[in-house]
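Our consortium's second objective concerns turning raw sequence data into structural hypotheses that experimental partners can test. To show how far this objective has progressed, the report includes one record in full. It was chosen at random from the queue rather than selected for favorable results. The single chain below, 190 residues long, was entered without modification.
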Amino acid sequence: MRYRAGHKAGTRRRIVEATAWALRARGLAGVGVADLMREAGLTHGGFYSHFDSKDTLVAEAVGLAGEESARNLHRIIDRAGRRSAWADIVAAYLSPAHRDRPDRGCALAALGPELARESAGARRAIAAQLETLLDLLAEHVPARRGTSRRREAMVRLAGLVGALILSRIAGDRALSDAILASARHRLSTP
């Protein structure tokens, strides 16, 4: 059976999208190739006609998740218009909605600790996301005397990611909400 032009590329994209979602939702250890293919609506047998290895797929999926994070930040920035977007970025990043939906959120917070110990391709993909987010945030962080905007972005991104991770692992909802609120207050002020 012959497929239309672009079918293989579309199928590959579907697999990468399903993987980006699954990795953020369940982590690297929580997904296998068979699961990923099933979530993309395909059989396990077709995996190697699209990818050399699971590492290749993971690297592409992390890259896609990073692109989605950057698009989300751009939407927040665009909505801010002429006023400073920083407070809006902090409010969205440290929101209960972001905490509760890691499958749709920042791959740094959802996967960063796991990917730091993974294949070189996966580490490069998450490092590229880190660079992209730092560049984007450096344009919007409040300037601090004696500190470059890039260094300020590093400190604030570390605070954002750390607070989100802690809020997700907190033992109860009250502590989780308090972590988000405290970090939102601290990080949104100049």
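The partners drew two points from this record. DSSP finds nine helices and no strands in the chain. The two ends are 61 Å apart (CA to CA). Both points have been shared with the crystallography group to help prioritize constructs.
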